[in-house]
Design goal:
The structure holds 2 protein chains of 2 kinds.
Chain A: H1 2-19, E1 28-38, E2 44-53, H2 55-62, H3 75-91, E3 96-100, E4 103-105, E5 111-118, E6 121-134, E7 138-143, E8 150-154, E9 162-165, E10 172-176, H4 183-189, H5 203-206, E11 209-214
Chain B: H1 2-14, H2 16-23, H3 44-68, H4 72-87, H5 95-105, H6 109-137, H7 142-181, H8 196-203, H9 215-219, H10 229-240, H11 262-269, H12 274-285, H13 289-326, H14 329-355
Helix pairs in contact in B: 1-13, 1-14, 2-5, 3-4, 3-12, 4-13, 5-6, 5-7, 5-13, 5-14, 6-7, 6-11, 6-12, 6-13, 7-11, 7-14, 12-13, 13-14
The chains are: A alpha+beta, B mainly alpha.
Chain lengths: 216, 367
């Protein structure tokens, strides 16, 4: 009996430990502001993101970069790094997922990108253009990392981290805040399915930064 | 028969590695796979997960504080230690590979502790070396450090895969000979007079570290791992093959000392924790590189403890399974060898899946 109990304990303990195996925590924290850009004719053309990286990543990323003045990096000096960042992010689809009227919306490579270094924090500014400008009754936008190595959150120091630029007047914007990380959610997060990038039924998505725009 | 099946099942479940592979996240090129099984404990997993992130973020805050307040360094060490403990529960710190290695090789739990500590400290050392050489000496960029890390990762995963292959080869032979034994009924203790020479050549018993006239043994270059075998099978020998062995002494280091398991230590240890690299670079930038180094090693200590605990559980489970399997000498041995081959396969699977990017250990800040 004792042996059985010991075996049962060993199994349970191992199972528990094994199941924590899939939980990697974020190594990069990004606070962001986003602006949804519209053309004069009322079609949505893209999103202008400003992603501010956390202090550890900012320090790591600027390690070894040449600068005229120590501790100060100009846009020009950061240009190569910006290019590297944008190239890497491309692989992950810029962590931006959009659905217009229920259909997946495609983005193309960003134009107009640059890095800014202020208060020892790096901020990546870039415009993510839609493949084709669109007019949609409802747009659902999410920004998140399915594997949760990067943590995204809207900048809570700004009153309006998400804005519409030039949108038709009747369009309504709702920003969905990420849910509080309760135990159940954290548990779900720790068992993220692999390559869930294209599914909106993701746990990461629930925790993500979501905004929706309804236009008549 | 049921005991054998039970022991195989137990052992397969027991290995953290198996579930690690099943639940692993994929890299950019991974294919879709079905969702994971439901969790066993409510909240605990999530709690560990949340704690990891918490401690990690705290470290940067405390490093900053340490610029003006020297005593903050002690806080940093405390947090780094806690982070190491929690973080090792996550992917990439060798717990699955080391546990599987211990199970495959029938090592003692003490050997498991040695391996866990050695590999964790090696990881810490490698992290410090990378940042020390790249950032301090060469003033390399993050991209260059990431490239170096990538090369080391590939080397580590390849070594793990090779280790797995070697284990499969050795344990596979053991399995086959145990399978052959099923055909030959084993003699009782009374047959102690059987000259062991004959029996051994038949069974290709390649685990003995004794001074037997084993021609097989000379062909192996695997001196490093086969001796822990005797801890479990001491009694079994006496009954199954009628040896006049005394009980084998419990081995701590065994012949070969710290070199035993070196391959596992190196395979797991050369890949540094990406969190440690970020902390080191950050500390360097704040002019507190030595604090960063201390924190890294303390982190390694925490990691070592967790990995050692998990490894001990794996070894305990294996020895429980082996005692269960013991009662059925023929099928029991087969089941045991089967478990070992299974564990060897887990090691190979890890190396292979990590190599092809199907599984991702840690992405760190190397986007």
């Amino acid at each position: 009996m004792k042996r059985f109990a010991a075996t049962a304990f060993a199994i349970a303990a191992n199972l528990l430990i094994a199941l924590t195996a899939a939980s990697a925590h974020p190594h990069v924290w990004i606070t962001m502001t986003s602006e949804v850009v519209y053309a004069p004719d009322g079609t949505m053309t893209g999103i202008r993101h400003a992603w501010t990286f956390d202090d550890m990543f900012s320090t790591f990323a600027t390690q070894g970069l040449e600068s005229k003045q120590k501790g100060v990096f100009t846009r020009e000096e950061l240009k190569p790094l910006a290019e590297v960042n944008v190239t890497s992010l491309k692989e992950y689809g810029f962590f931006t997922y959009a659905k217009a009227d229920g259909k997946k919306a495609e983005f193309v490579e960003p134009t107009d990108y640059y890095l800014e270094y202020k208060d020892q924090l790096l901020t990546l500014h870039f415009v993510l253009p839609l493949k084709a400008p669109m007019k949609a009754k409802s747009l659902d936008l999410q920004i998140f990392d399915p594997s949760y190595f990067v943590d995204f959150s809207f900048d809570d120091k700004t009153k309006t981290p998400v804005t519409l630029a030039g949108a038709p007047e009747q369009c309504k914007l709702t920003v969905g805040k990420p849910q509080e990380m309760d135990a159940k959610l954290a548990q779900q997060l720790s068992q993220l399915p692999p390559d869930a990038r294209n599914s909106t039924a993701l746990i990461g998505a629930e925790y993500s930064n979501r905004l929706s725009i309804q236009c008549p | 028969m049921t005991a054998a099946i039970l022991s195989v099942a137990i052992a397969l479940l027991l290995m953290p590695g198996v579930l690690d592979v099943v639940l692993a996240q994929t890299g950019p090129f991974g294919a879709s796979r079905p969702r994971a099984a439901p969790p066993p404990a409510d909240g605990i997993v999530g709690w560990i997960f949340a704690k990891q992130a918490e401690f990690y973020r705290e470290m940067s805050r405390v490093i900053r504080a340490a610029k003006t307040d020297g005593s903050a360094v002690w806080t940093l060490l405390g947090i780094a230690f806690a982070y190491g403990i929690f973080h090792a529960a996550g992917p990439g710190h060798g717990k699955a590979v080391i546990s599987s290695y211990l199970v495959a090789n029938e090592e003692t739990w003490r050997r498991g502790i040695v391996l866990s500590f050695a590999s964790a400290l090696l990881q810490a050392f490698v992290a410090v070396a990378i940042v020390g050489i790249a950032a301090v000496l060469l003033n390399a960029t993050a991209r260059q450090m990431c490239d170096a890390e990538r090369v080391i990762e590939i080397a580590s995963y390849a070594l793990i895969a090779l280790l797995g292959l070697r284990l499969i080869w050795v344990k596979g032979k053991g399995f086959i000979s145990a399978a052959r034994n099923l055909g030959h009924p084993l003699h009782a203790v009374g047959a102690a007079v059987t000259p062991h020479d004959h029996k051994h050549h038949d069974h290709r018993h390649d685990h003995h570290g004794h001074d037997h006239a084993h021609h097989d043994h000379k062909q192996h270059d695997h001196h490093d791992h086969d001796h822990g075998h005797h801890d479990h099978d001491g009694d079994e020998h006496a009954s199954a093959w009628g040896h006049a062995h005394g009980p084998e002494p419990e081995e701590l280091a065994g012949p070969g000392g710290w070199q035993r398991g070196l391959s596992a230590i190196v395979a797991v240890g050369i890949r540094p924790c990406s969190g440690a690299i970020l902390v080191l670079v950050f500390a360097l930038a704040q002019g507190l590189f030595w604090a960063g180094v201390a924190a890294t090693f303390v982190m390694g200590l925490g990691t070592a403890i967790t990995v050692a605990a998990i490894a001990t559980l794996a070894v305990t489970a294996k020895s429980l399974a082996s005692r269960v399997a013991h009662t059925r000498s023929g099928y029991g041995m087969l089941a045991l060898r089967g478990i070992e081959v299974g564990a060897a396969c887990v090691v190979l699977a890890f190396g292979a899946l990590l190599l092809v990017g199907y599984m991702v250990a840690e992405r760190g800040a190397c986007l």
